[in-house]
Design brief:
The protein is of the alpha+beta class. The protein has 9 helices and 5 strands. GO terms for molecular function: kinase activity; RNA binding.
């Protein structure tokens, strides 16, 4: 049997045989593998925030993930309360790195909040929370903008190019996890709707002594006439035993 520690050490060697003992690359590789143990999108995003704020990126004291939901900023994962407070300031002022990054599709770095003049309403209030440095990394897949992974520090010039590179990798994992959860949810809804439509067809077949194709056609017509989704028509049929009234 292969010793697990030896195998892990071997996989942590470079092509020249040197062991990568520490540093962002090794920490991120271990972090990426640990995400496989998380069940669901919420624990995965929480793990990413924890890794970013505590383990993965030097000088990051706080971290959070926010999304744009119905034109409003919504915090979906955070290391602590400060993250939500900063997100609320951006939501209330309509200014800040979240909005700029989302609009321009770029990573936004603030080296010193006290000297930054890009968003005066935001920086004035955020500085009161003793935030000096920020790094806002976009969450996206192809042409879909999902939100941002943001890092915060109480010291100026906290984040450099290396921090941006590791942060971008973490942001990509967060985006993939979010899209995967959305796709899983859509699949579950589709399967549930399919079962519901099947039940409704059975009700109509039994009541009117018709074929499955004819029952499906009745559901389609009721959906069109009533301007209702097919799943809603099916739900009403299974609950009442009849097609919904027109109009």
């Amino acid at each position: 049997m292969v010793d697990q520690f030896a195998a892990r050490e071997g996989r942590s060697r470079t092509s020249e045989g040197k062991v990568v003992e520490d540093g962002p690359a090794l920490r991120f590789s271990e972090y990426a593998r640990s995400l496989q143990a998380e069940d669901g999108v919420a624990p995965t995003l929480a793990a990413i925030v924890q890794a970013a704020a505590v383990d993965g990126i030097p000088n990051a004291e706080h971290a959070g993930i926010a999304v744009l939901s119905r034109r409003e900023i919504r915090t979906v994962a955070s290391s602590d309360d400060l993250v939500g407070q900063v997100d609320r300031i951006q939501a209330e002022t309509g200014q800040g790195p979240f909005w700029s990054g989302l609009r321009d599709h770029v990573t936004v770095r603030i080296d010193d909040l006290q000297g930054d003049r890009r968003w005066p309403a935001f920086t004035t209030r955020a500085a009161e929370l003793e935030v000096r440095s920020m790094l806002s990394l976009q969450l996206f897949v192809r042409d879909r903008e999902l939100g941002a992974l943001s890092l915060y520090s109480s010291v100026p010039d906290a984040f450099d190019h290396a921090a941006e590179q590791v942060g971008l990798l973490m942001a990509s994992h967060a985006a993939i996890a979010m899209v995967g959860a959305q796709q899983q949810h859509h699949l579950e809804v589709a399967l549930a709707n399919r079962d519901l439509i099947g039940q409704a067809k059975g009700v109509l077949m039994e009541r009117y002594r018709i074929t499955a194709d004819r029952a499906f056609a009745l559901l389609v017509r009721a959906s069109q006439d009533g301007n209702l989704k097919m799943a809603e028509v099916a739900r009403r049929v299974t609950e009442t035993g009849a097609l919904p009234d027109r109009g």
